Amino acid sequence: MDVISVIRTKRDKGELSPEQIDWVIDAYTRGAVADEQMSALAMAILLNGMNRDEIARWTAAMIASGERMDFSSLSRPTADKHSTGGVGDKITLPLAPLVAACGAAVPQLSGRGLGHTGGTLDKLESIPGWRALLSNEEMLHVLDTTGAVICAAGDGLAPADKKLYALRDVTGTVEAIPLIASSIMSKKIAEGTGSLVLDVKVGTGAFMKSIEDARELASTMVQLGTDSGVKTVALLTDMSTPLGLTAGNALEVRESVEVLAGGGPADVVELTIALAREMLDAAGIKDADPAKALADGSAMDVWRRMIAAQGGDPDATLPVAREQHVVTAPSSGVLTRLDAYDIGIAAWRLGAGRARKEDPVQAGAGVELHAKPGDTITAGQPLLTLHTDTPEKFDYALTSLENAWDVAPTGTSFEASPIVLD
Ligand code: URA
């Protein structure tokens, strides 16, 4: 087998054979196929697509590139959630302890932010002492003793994806449905969860801008999971407006703790409970009430134990950025749009995200929202507060906010898009 014939097959809109797929994934993982060759193949896949058989084989080959985890020793059913990423998407933080409080074991392998979308691990690392890197034994121990664990995927899990994802990120080949579906599902299937709920985001702040693309991605992933024996369901959810009132690491942890304490913004609470219900249903747990577990403090108890088990101090003061800048409303009326992508870019520029994988993030940086679409606002009132340790970034962040909102005359009727679209 030679890599040039594999690239040519896809370049010329052909179907890759199972042997070609197995060979190229294995050879790339071993270093026998060079990055420039794999990036040519990834671009050919982005431009010409793959059919479902090719995607299934590609996913299986990525799973086979590494180890598989096994949770069969646990007494509870396992349930995991994966979001395709968005702005202000802190849902994993309250959701994992909530679902654990309702009786499931939640092994939540999470990622770091890149570009305008935040990453769960970056958020949790703003809690003093908290560790994302656990050995497989430590992960199982935290899961067994607290019911939930949120940590980084070990190096042994789908190493082909780790290498390929980093390459796609710098070669403009992230936004390909076959590559996104196989990347996400290879990690989830190798992780060994019994059930999986996918939160596929749609809108300006998401990878998938149209509902048709989001539906295609969701159905591809559901089929991959189901064919591998993982009970998999997907929700399509709105990402045209940031979730909640914060985008940024420590800011989002603070808001998640408010949700766990029985408060927090209505959209974050609604989506957390909707996803919890789907996870519990997929795990076969019928009589739990996630709204009650939020209200009675049992989800908060799991959160505190989970954070402490990973070295974090749940009572520690969270970092606050050194400088703040308030953006005021330019006119009075009804706020009809607050763009998730623009807010995400601003948070990223303020230091909440990274431009390259190795960059550090600022724990306190980000954007706080003082109004959401549908609210009536008055000229001069605070609309956003920008937070950063590097105030020279304010101007740069402000340029991304120039077209970030629309205000309609007072009294204009406004119907908010539902959070769960399908
Ligand atoms: N998240 C992943 O894990 N992989 C992708 O390709 C995109 C988002």
Describe the structure.
- The protein folds into three domains: 3-49, Transferase, Pyrimidine Nucleoside Phosphorylase, Chain C (Transferase, Pyrimidine Nucleoside Phosphorylase, Chain A, domain 3, Up-down Bundle); 79-309, Nucleoside phosphorylase/phosphoribosyltransferase catalytic domain (Pyrimidine Nucleoside Phosphorylase, Chain A, domain 2); 323-408, Pyrimidine nucleoside phosphorylase-like, C-terminal domain (Aldehyde Oxidoreductase, domain 3, Alpha-Beta Complex), CATH 3.90.1170.30.
- 44% of the residues lie in helices and 15% in strands.
- The protein has helices spanning 3-11, 18-30, 35-48, 52-64, 92-101, 120-124, 136-146, 159-169, 177-191, 211-227, 249-260, 266-282, 290-295, 298-309, 340-352, 394-399; strands at 79-83, 106-110, 148-152, 195-202, 231-238, 246-247, 323-328, 333-338, 366-369, 376-377, 382-388, 405-408.
- The strands form four sheets. A four-stranded antiparallel β-sheet has the order 6-9-11-7, with helices on both faces.
- Helix 2 packs parallel to helix 4 (52-64) and helix 9 runs parallel beside helix 10.
- The mean pLDDT is 95.
- The structure holds uracil.
- Uracil binds next to helix 9.
- It comes from Streptomyces cinereoruber.
Number of helices: 16
Whole-number radius of gyration? 21 Å
Order of helices and strands: HHHHEHEHHEHHEHEEHHHHEEHEEEHE
Shape: globular
Biggest sheet strand line-up: 6-9-11-7
State the helicity in percent bands. Answer: 40-55%
